[in-house]
Ammonium transporter (Nonomuraea ferruginea), 436 residues
Amino acid sequence: MQIDTGTTAWMLTATALVLLMTPGLALFYGGMTRAKSVLNMMMMSFAAIIVVTVLWLFYGHSLAFTENPVSAINNFVGGFDALGLQSLVDTATADDGSGMPSLVFSAFQLTFAIITVALISGAIADRAKFGAWVLFAAVWATIVYFPVAHWVWGGGWLNSMGIEDFAGGTVVHINAGAAALALALVIGKRQGWRKEPMRPHNLTLVLLGAAMLWFGWFGFNAGSELIVDGIAGLAFMNTQLATAIAAGAWIVVEKLRDGHATSLGVASGAVSGLVAITPACGFVDPWAAALIGLVAGAVCAFAVGLKYKLNYDDSLDVVGVHLVGGVIGAVALGFVAAYPATDAQGLGLFYGGGLGQLGLQVLGPVAVGLYSFVVTWVIGTVIHKTMGFRIPVEDEVTGIDVTTHAETGYDLGTVHASGVTSPNGPVTPAPKKVEA
């Protein structure tokens, strides 16, 4: 098949947009932590880029997107036809009719794997050993993300049953959210949790990160159509609608409940809308996208408080936003799916579909959520009992940036102000203005 240059150019752009989301996530998460943890939080996202990219080269794409020669095993994990990605170089274009090179498709899917791993890190901010996180990222991507991607997108059992997940509500957000809950339970609560203030140290970074996520998400969602057509445009518009309305819904809930609409709320609300529309963006009409955003923004605004009622320390609300938001979007398809990927069996109840699709849209989140939670619990526990997953108490109190990375996010010692001494000696105060 001849290469379609227009589609290829768009997919290269979409791939770059999705990769940009992980540095955006680093800023979003980094601003939400305390100042003494910002660098470590951001380093966890960059470590995910490194680790997952290396694994993708060796076997990640193969396990997720090639066919296993044993049909029974193929239901759960792919084969080894693309080890080292060399076979994709020899394949001029993907065989899906899109007209883009196979390596472009692979690069696009790589960026999804990267951000899924990075998302988990927000649940264990301030207290995880960096080396343990790197090991966890490698193991989790291998035995959780790659198989789940195969289940849903690579010809596995959920794909064969007809589950709908346009851009990763199940594969990315429910998968990461369930893992975040398990890992937070294994590692335990931060020192001083619920006793000391642990407010975001830099809301400017949070808003900047949210803006980068919002921008990159257009590649995430519209790019998942894999070709340039009307459905890609629908996914693009639905992403904007759901995100804006979710952000508004969150701050309305804040205003009614707490008396204030906050910048953290508008950023978190936007992300909840992005999460919820991800599985549905190319399958639903604009009115349904708006409704999904409204529900996600309002429900997630309450869901982030579950950690206080259930007594688990999900530092940056990965569970309340990504797990809950992902479930809302995935299940909503059982009601409002209007443009099924295959046939009329994919229609939602409101469009004349039966209960079968709704059942699948419930089954997928349950199956992926349980698998991710249980396997993450095992991985986290093994690491915790062997090399240790948590930094010492004194390091946590001092600050993980200094004790782990020998750096700080802010060099406050050089601030020039009256009465402040810099590392280079006393600071001479600026002369005062004399009033006439």
